[in-house]
Specification:
Blueprint lengths: L1 H21 L7 E4 L3 E5 L4 E7 L10 H5 L7 H8 L4 E7 L4 E8 L8 E7 L2 E8 L3
Antiparallel strand pairs: 1-2, 2-3, 3-4, 4-5, 5-6, 6-7
């Protein structure tokens, strides 16, 4: 019975999301949602895909680890320092340029302790953090 209730709540949430997305003020924007991915295509020629890898990282990200991350490093080097990320967002322009952002969210933080890294051509171009200790 509990499983059926959870399923119904999930379906209602998905239906609500689909209704809200279809009422978007930008008629040239299309949103497709699957269980783990959300893809948004805009009229400006960008496609964004968000992928939830896991809810939180296994090993918490600290400010000391974050400070080792410098512009120009590769994604693989960042993973050696921080571990596997919890989510990934990809933006692709009509010209083919791809920008990928990864987020490392600490467990038990309610999503408020995280590190975010953005890569182009597998080189770090931007980094951000919130409430790391």
């Amino acid at each position: 019975m509990k499983t059926m209730k959870k399923l119904m709540i999930g379906l209602m949430a998905l239906a609500t999301y689909a209704t809200v997305a279809s009422c978007s003020p930008k008629p040239s924007t299309r949103t497709v949602t699957t269980r783990a991915n959300t893809t948004v295509t805009t009229g400006e020629g960008f496609v964004q895909t968000r992928t939830l890898i896991s809810e939180y990282v296994e090993t918490p990200v600290t400010l000391a680890k974050y400070d080792k991350i410098q512009k120009g490093i590769t994604f693989q080097q960042a993973v050696r320092i921080l571990g596997e990320p919890s989510s990934k967002s990809t933006w692709k322009s009509t010209g083919g340029e791809e920008t990928i952002s990864y987020t490392w969210t600490n467990p038990g933080s309610g999503g408020f302790e995280f590190a975010g890294l953005t890569f182009q051509d597998n080189n770090l171009i931007r980094r951000t953090q919130n409430n790391l200790k």
